[in-house]
Every structure is written in structure tokens, then in C-alpha cells.
Design brief:
By secondary structure, the protein is of the alpha/beta class. About 30% of the residues lie in helices and about 25% in strands. The model has no long low-confidence stretch (mean pLDDT about 95).
């Protein structure tokens, strides 16, 4: 079995998540598609790097990203840095021919996405974007049903990705709240729900968006005692239009009081409907409009499919299909799909090209919020 050396750029929340997933792969998948070894982690300080080594078991640490990307024993580069740092790392990793696993959004600007797209025809590695919500059994089941034409032609849809973490105007913030940092809720949360909807029922042809900044200034998390001018949206509502005329509403917000990590969608078609909420991740709800109606309701009604943790083999053995699923499990299966693609020399999904397409959708939504107009969307990946 092949063994791949792994280097991770960044060890904040997402860097820890990716390292945890690597450590977990052999537990959840027997046998794993490949074996991986955590070779090197890159952090902004040496003390932080040594702490990451102790926490996750990396062999060494560095403060120089190029020492990760150019290392002879690193086959896979994880990009878990702030958005504005993605482009340089991705361009260097593509040039070095390394396999790439990148957090969303892929870049901080549309120009960076276009420049990376120009590099892809000559790239020989495997590159995937970590859009983990495709990798819950419930959403995977939704995809199976859509492919089987359970819904029929789409009549209407809605989706949302809602947090409440920015409701308090006095909460300290980091780069995610500034346009210069590549932040904003459309890129941060909108990426997940727009990816899911595009994967399930896309592509879409146009978007119209309105957005809001809730707090004009907030304390800086990175520079205590100073204030940050908030110039990236904290809530957005989008209209999406499909080529056949189907329309839907998509929300992304960090000021949705009462929510935790609420990602949900509802899809309505000629033949049926389905809905999902990440706060109830074990179930996909479906409605079959082709069942007979009649007195007292006949055979129609919403059904809950118990997707739970029923992953395809070999991911079904541990801890067992009947046990409840969670956020980190989706990340582990997302990474597994990437490693499986490397082992099989296959195209991963969502690929880096798909991530760049998503970036163009995100930037179109932001452009629409600025202009107030409908903005056409790209139709090819």
C-alpha cells in the first residue's frame, strides 16, 4: 500500500480538523485507500509549530510555506490558511506537482481564481476542495435520489447557511470580517449552501443578491485594543435562477439569532420534494408526490430516511451505521474521497476546478449585492 507524506499549511481550527481526519482514516476505513504520514506543519511562529507537532504528531514544523510545498517527502499539501494566503500556496503547489487539499473558498478574489484556472491544464496532481457537507450519508442519499429523477423537473428551491456568532456588535473579529481579508458571509457560509445546491440541482444561470453589514465597527481579535471597520457583509439573501426558469432563495447569515450551525435546503419538483437540516443530520426527509392521494390523505406524506452513519463500504464498519453522525465525520469522509481519488488516479469531487467555479458564483453574488442587478453565472466547470 502506498504511503503519502502530508504537509499542512496552517494549524488553526481547520488545520486541526484536517490533521484529525488523517489520524482517523485508518480507524474508519479498513483498509484505507493509502496510508498517510503527517510530515510537516507550517505556522506563523516556531512555538506554535512545536505545539502543533506535540498535538497532532507531525515530524517537524516550519514558519516557511515553501519548506512544506517543496519538501521531497511531502506528497500532499493542505491549504488551511486565511483566504488571502491561498493563491500563493496553491500556485506554488500546482507548479510543484503536489496533490492539493484546500479549504473553501479557494481564493480571496475573482482574479486569483481566474489565474489559478489558467494553471490547471498543465497540472498533473489530484486537487480537491474541502466542502464536507457533500459527504454526509443524508446528502449523499439526496444526490442518489436526484440522479434517479425522484424530484422530476425542479419547480422551486430554498437553502440557508445560518450562524449567530456575530449578533453581538461588541464581539471581536478577525480577517473573516473584512473584504481585504477575503472575508464576508457569502464566501464563508454561502460557499457551503451554494455548493450543495449546485451539486444537487445546478447549474444556475443568474444571481441577484442583497446584503447587510450589522455592525460598522468591531474590536480586533488580532490587535486587542483597536477597532476594525467592517466592510464585508454579515448577512446576504440571494435569488438564484436556473436555465429552465426554476427560481429559489438562498440565505447566508452570521447574525441569525437562535441558530448554531444551521445549514438546510428544501427542493421541490414535479414528482416530489426533499429537505434537510444539518441540526438533524441523521435524516433526509422526502415526499413522493406520485403516491396515491385519497380519503384521509391516502398514501402521501413526508418520510424520514434514516441515513444516520450508513456510509458505503469500507466506511460502514466503524462505529456502525445505526449510530448518530456528526460534523467531523463528514470531514473524514471528504478526506477519504480525496485519498481514494489519489489511489485510483481518478478525478476527485469537488475538484479544484469545481471550487474555482464556485468561487465565480460567490464573486458574482457579491457583485450583485454591490450593483443591485442580476449577474450572469458561468455555465461550465
Amino acid at each position: 500500500m502506498r504511503t503519502l507524506g502530508v504537509g499542512i499549511l496552517g494549524f488553526g481550527f481547520m488545520g486541526r480538523t484536517h490533521a484529525f481526519a488523517h489520524r482517523s482514516i485508518p480507524i474508519y476505513y479498513d483498509p484505507p485507500p493509502v496510508r498517510t504520514e503527517l510530515k510537516v506543519v507550517c505556522r506563523t511562529t516556531e512555538d506554535g509549530g512545536r505545539a502543533a507537532m506535540e498535538t497532532a504528531g507531525f515530524e517537524r514544523c516550519t514558519t516557511d510555506p515553501m519548506q512544506v510545498i517543496e519538501a521531497d517527502d511531502v506528497d500532499v499539501v493542505h491549504v488551511c490558511t486565511p483566504n488571502v494566503e491561498h493563491f500563493a500556496a496553491l500556485a506554488a503547489a500546482i507548479k510543484a506537482g503536489k496533490h492539493i487539499y484546500c479549504d473553501k473558498p479557494v481564493t480571496a478574489t475573482l482574479e486569483e481564481a481566474d489565474r489559478l484556472a489558467e494553471m490547471l491544464p498543465d497540472y498533473k496532481g489530484v486537487a480537491q476542495v474541502a466542502l464536507q457537507y457533500r459527504f454526509l450519508p443524508a446528502t449523499m442519499r439526496a444526490k442518489q435520489l436526484v440522479k434517479a429523477d425522484f424530484l422530476g423537473p425542479i419547480t422551486h428551491f430554498r437553502g440557508a447557511s445560518l450562524h449567530s456568532g456575530s449578533v453581538d456588535p461588541s464581539k471581536a473579529v478577525n480577517w473573516k470580517s473584512t473584504a481585504a481579508g477575503g472575508g464576508g458571509v457569502i464566501r464563508d457560509l454561502g460557499s457551503h449552501i451554494l455548493d450543495l445546491l449546485g451539486w444537487l440541482i445546478g447549474p444556475f444561470e443568474a444571481v441577484q443578491c442583497v446584503s447587510r453589514i450589522w455592525a460598522a465597527e468591531r474590536p480586533s481579535l488580532e490587535e486587542p485594543g483597536t477597532m476594525v471597520r467592517i466592510d464585508a457583509e454579515e448577512a446576504a439573501v440571494m435569488l438564484l435562477r436556473a436555465p429552465d426558469g426554476a427560481v429559489g432563495i438562498v440565505e447566508a447569515s452570521k447574525i441569525a439569532t437562535g441558530t448554531e450551525d444551521e445549514l438546510r435546503f428544501e427542493l421541490h419538483g414535479l414528482h416530489g420534494a426533499m429537505r434537510f437540516n444539518l441540526m438533524q443530520p441523521n435524516y433526509l426527509e422526502v415526499y413522493d408526490g406520485r403516491l396515491p392521494d385519497g380519503e384521509c390523505g391516502g398514501g402521501r406524506g413526508w418520510q424520514r430516511i434514516a441515513s444516520v452513519q450508513k456510509y458505503p463500504a469500507p466506511g460502514h464498519k466503524f462505529p456502525g451505521g445505526k449510530l448518530s453522525v456528526g460534523w467531523i465525520r463528514a470531514h473524514i469522509h471528504c478526506l477519504y474521497s480525496f485519498l481514494r481519488a489519489i489511489a485510483d488516479d481518478a478525478r476527485p469531487h469537488p475538484s479544484l476546478a469545481e471550487g474555482l467555479h464556485l468561487q465565480r458564483v460567490l464573486e458574482a453574488a457579491r457583485a450583485s449585492a454591490e450593483s443591485g442587478n442580476w449577474v450572469d453565472l458561468p455555465q461550465t466547470v
